[in-house]
Amino acid sequence: MIDISQMTLEQLESTIESCALCPLHSGRNHAVPGEGPARADIMFIGEGPGFHEDRQGRPFVGAAGKFLEELLANISMTREQVYIANVIKCRAPGNRDPQPEELTACKPYLDRQIEIIQPKVIVTLGRFSMYRYFPGQSISKIHGQPRQAGNVLVVPMFHPAAALHQPKWRPLIEADFQKLPQLVAKMEQSGPIEPEPKAQQLSLF
Ligand code: URA
Predict the structure, then answer these.
(1) Which of 18, 25, 53, 178 gives 20 to 30 Å between its CA and that of 146?
(2) 158 in ligand 1 pocket by Cβ < 6 Å?
(3) Residue 6 class from Cβ within 10 Å (0-12 exposed, 13-18 middle, 19+ buried)?
(4) What is the whole-number distance in angstroms between the Cα of residue 161 and the centre of ligand 1?
């Protein structure tokens, strides 16, 4: 694998666009590196591109994306203000769950994205990004409960697509979103703490 450790966000995104590290590359129309400013207070990490994302090369542009934009609007934010990424960058056939080797192949990209963007708050959307920080946990038990991981506060939330399909989860994700402005403010006040321990980073998946 080429050295991505010094890449800018732009260089990283174009490397991801031509990535062939796992078999998913052969079925894609477009890889979906992620989207947003190179420095953002909030970073969202979803699962992987779906049909529309694969067509457009952009994250969260289908129904789940519309809902994500609505949730952001509820806290007076737009998608242009946040960085939106996924744990896997290419669509899995039929939107099946990502396989361990696909997560492993994509992990360095997400690690580098986080390193560049330096978000104050990371919101994990759904199980697979939650497992990065909360292995083996259940989303219905821990959603909305922030945990500090080095310099960043990680907040697990339901995936917007899941909340669209399960109406009882909709008010829960809406309530969890309402916490975000305060959590960002809290991180602004507390300032940098310490780097995320390397051992923890390495054992995430
Ligand atoms: N669902 C995801 O997890 N990511 C996307 O980019 C779109 C839908």
Answers:
(1) 53
(2) no
(3) exposed
(4) 8
Confirm or reject: Cβ of 47 under 6 Å from ligand 1.
yes
DSSP secondary-structure letter at 81? G
Give the helix, strand, coil percentages of the chain, each rounded to 5: 50, 10, 40
For 153-186, how does the pLDDT look when each residue is reduced to its tens digit (9 = 90+)? 999 999 999 999 999 999 999 999 999 999 999 9
Atom number in ligand 1 closest to CA 46: 3
Which residue type sits at 7?
M
DSSP characters over 36-62: S-SS-SEEEEES---HHHHHHT-SS-S
What is the C-alpha separation between 147 and 107, in angstroms, rounded?
A: 20
Mean pLDDT across the chain: 94
- 195 vs 157: which has the higher pLDDT: 157
> Is any atom of ligand 1 closer than 6 Å to the C-beta of 53?
yes
Using alpha carbons, list the distances in angstroms from residue 201 to 2, 20, 51: 20, 23, 30
Ligand 1 pocket residue status of 48, Cβ below 6 Å: yes
**Domain limits at 44?**
23-194
The answer to whether position 16 is within a domain reads no
Query: For the whole prediction, is pTM greater than 0.90?
Result: yes
Domain CATH number, residue 182 = 3.40.470.10
46 lines ligand 1 (CB under 6 A): yes
